Amino acid sequence: MLKIAWSPEYAHPLPEAHRFPMLKYELLPEQLLYEGTVTQENFFQPSALAEDRILRVHDSDYWHRLRTLALTPVEIRKTGFPLSKELVDREVVIMGGTVEAADYALQYGVAMNIAGGTHHAFTNRGEGFCLLNDNALAAQYLLDERKATQILIIDLDVHQGNGTAQIFEHEPRVFTFSMHGGNNYPLQKEHSDLDVPLPDGIEDKAYLSLLRHHLPALFDQVQPDFVFFQSGVDVLASDKLGKLGLTQAGCKERDLTVLELCHRHKVPVCGSMGGGYSTRIADIVEAHANTFRLAQQIFF
């Protein structure tokens, strides 16, 4: 069964300027239920991740200042959100969602988090709408509990997974792969184990050719026994922040490539949704929904 983390806290209200990106957390589960891709049984409501788990990845000083709302104005501006207790509580539940989804992926082969993909969070700071790093926390959990020994993080959001790269820079048991817009945020990139910077405007054929060149080779090289997939849909040509040229069909083919490889190699995969900033909310929801539809089709 495809298990999907979702909580009402995911749709935490924000000031008007920040509400639009949050709409997908309400609309996506409604769409998946309406069309019959999933039923209510597929969803689980995650718990907040325990503090000791958070401290396995994030610095204690940063975590203390985050949860007590003591970040500096500069630090808050870098996160992109006005800081509040509700926002921090929401983030901690999202972290729990990816950790719990990782356990479900071990059981069923695949699991998803409606939110997550917070790859701009470093050990000691937040950036780019990310306060804590869910894929890093879940990967560390699997390693700590000896539920995985070699993890591959596939980050196909349009923005480099800079926080994830920094967190695992010296961890050979986690291989970080980021295929992202070379001229996009962040201006200063970190060093993933493999970075594939993309030119502005790249379209489906060239994008998919690059992905199909690198990804099968990574499965052979890394020999992962678990995969985290950051499936941001800000690669779409319609995205306001993306600068790339993918169509809905190309984005779907991207997800198909990743999920089929995981299924073929019998490697459990945990998906997080990441970014999506198209002008029409319907374009964002449709692209994300394709990821869930494919997971259901391929694995079940």
Structure write-up:
The chain is α/β, with parallel strands linked by helices. The chain has one domain (3-299): Arginase, Chain A, CATH 3.40.800.20. Helices cover 43% and strands 12% of the residues. The protein contains 11 helices and 8 strands. The chain has helices at residues 16-19, 24-34, 51-54, 60-67, 73-79, 85-108, 134-144, 162-167, 204-222, 248-264, 281-299; strands spanning 3-5, 43-44, 110-113, 151-155, 174-181, 194-198, 226-230, 269-272. Strands 2-1-3-8-7-4-5-6 form an 8-stranded parallel sheet, sandwiched between helices. Helix 10 (248-264) links the parallel strand 7 (226-230) and strand 8 (269-272). The longest helix is centred in the first third of the chain and has 24 residues, at 85-108. The mean pLDDT is 96. This is Deacetylase. Residues 24-289 form the Histone deacetylase domain. Keywords: Hydrolase. Belongs to the histone deacetylase family. Pfam families: Hist_deacetyl.
Sum up the structure in keywords:
Deacetylase; 43% helix; 300 residues; histone deacetylase activity; Arginase, Chain A; Ureohydrolase_dom_sf; 8-stranded parallel sheet; HDACs; alpha/beta; hydrolase activity
What is the topological layout?
Elements: E1 3-5, H1 16-19, H2 24-34, E2 43-44, H3 51-54, H4 60-67, H5 73-79, H6 85-108, E3 110-113, H7 134-144, E4 151-155, H8 162-167, E5 174-181, E6 194-198, H9 204-222, E7 226-230, H10 248-264, E8 269-272, H11 281-299
Parallel strand pairs: 1-2, 1-3, 3-8, 4-5, 4-7, 5-6, 7-8
Helix pairs in contact: 2-11, 6-7, 9-10, 10-11
